[in-house]
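thought: user wants a sequence for this fold. calling inverse folding tool.
action: design(structure=
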């Protein structure tokens, strides 16, 4: 990694720390000149920078709680997130029966119907129930959903998923899958479900189905992000979202090196300030931020004719 100078380092610290203070001082927030003058950095208006970029949150959720989806919209409004791609996966450890995934999808359909200008819906299912899953795909996509979000009832590389993946190839829609730690350092135990998909599972399924489009979830979600980036380097049909609460400073830089600017997606997974802060603090260009914040995901939506601002 190339050495960065003191001035650049301090400027990035100002950006990252400033965004974390936004929650209590949102309107017109800036870092006071006197706080950075000693470091030779001019006053920095963090919200001006935040609002500069259009944003599609590629990994968002709604919940069975009284404050959802209003709380998600509140965060999105504060941070200038134009669209949120929302899903409600089934609870970890659940049986994943059809009545459960139908209930989850009904919640998403309701949220998208009430806020069509903000929410883009994704369905969930359990491929152990092939017939019901294929019926649910038709029901939900007929009502405007644009992809799928899966948890860990079945690994992404399991043959049970093959008919689901083939259906989404036909639909030209993305498959977002929960991801686990990584083969090199993982030890399965009671805290790590045995069916969680790891990077090697994505590599396998992406090679088997090069026409499919996959999304590797939450690079900053506590997984071994270095291992994940290295594993997925040569899987061009796997996109990687940077959502999660992990604030390691090098995540975006490392992902840019191994994944590249065209396959990275902005996402929050409910860690809204971190999701935006990762990209503002990263040493990348404005055009690269525009790609990751908005353009890359919008281009995925365009494949199915569901892109933002379509005529």
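)
observation: tool returned 311 residues.
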């Amino acid at each position: 990694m190339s050495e960065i100078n003191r001035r650049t380092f301090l400027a990035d610290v100002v950006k990252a720390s400033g965004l974390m203070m936004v929650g209590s001082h949102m309107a017109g927030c800036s870092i006071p000149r006197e706080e950075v003058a000693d470091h030779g950095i001019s006053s920095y208006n963090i919200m001006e920078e935040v609002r500069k970029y259009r944003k599609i949150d590629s990994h968002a959720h709604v919940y069975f709680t009284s404050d959802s989806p209003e709380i998600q919209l509140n965060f999105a409004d504060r941070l200038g997130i134009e669209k949120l791609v929302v899903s409600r996966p089934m609870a970890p450890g659940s049986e994943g029966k059809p009545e459960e995934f139908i209930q989850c999808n009904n919640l998403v359909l309701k949220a998208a119907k009430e806020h069509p200008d903000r929410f883009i819906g994704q369905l969930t299912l359990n491929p152990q129930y092939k017939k019901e899953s294929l019926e649910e795909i038709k029901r939900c996509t007929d009502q405007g959903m644009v992809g799928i979000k899966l948890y860990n009832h079945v690994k992404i590389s399991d043959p049970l998923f093959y008919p689901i993946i083939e259906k989404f190839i036909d639909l030209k829609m993305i498959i977002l899958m929960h991801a686990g730690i990584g083969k090199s350092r993982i030890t399965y135990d009671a805290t790590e479900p045995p069916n969680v998909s790891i990077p090697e599972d994505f590599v396998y399924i992406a090679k088997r189905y090069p026409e499919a489009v996959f999304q590797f979830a939450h690079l900053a979600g506590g997984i071994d992000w270095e291992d994940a980036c290295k594993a997925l380097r040569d899987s061009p049909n796997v996109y990687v979202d940077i959502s999660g609460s992990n604030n390691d400073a090098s995540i975006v830089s490392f992902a840019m090196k191994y994944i590249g600017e065209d396959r990275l997606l902005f996402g929050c997974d409910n860690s809204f300030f971190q999701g935006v802060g990762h990209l503002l603090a990263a040493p990348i260009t404005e055009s690269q931020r525009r790609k990751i914040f908005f353009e890359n995901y919008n281009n995925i939506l365009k494949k199915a004719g569901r892109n933002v601002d379509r005529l």
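thought: summarizing for user.
answer: Here is the designed sequence. The chain has two domains: 1-51, 54-303.
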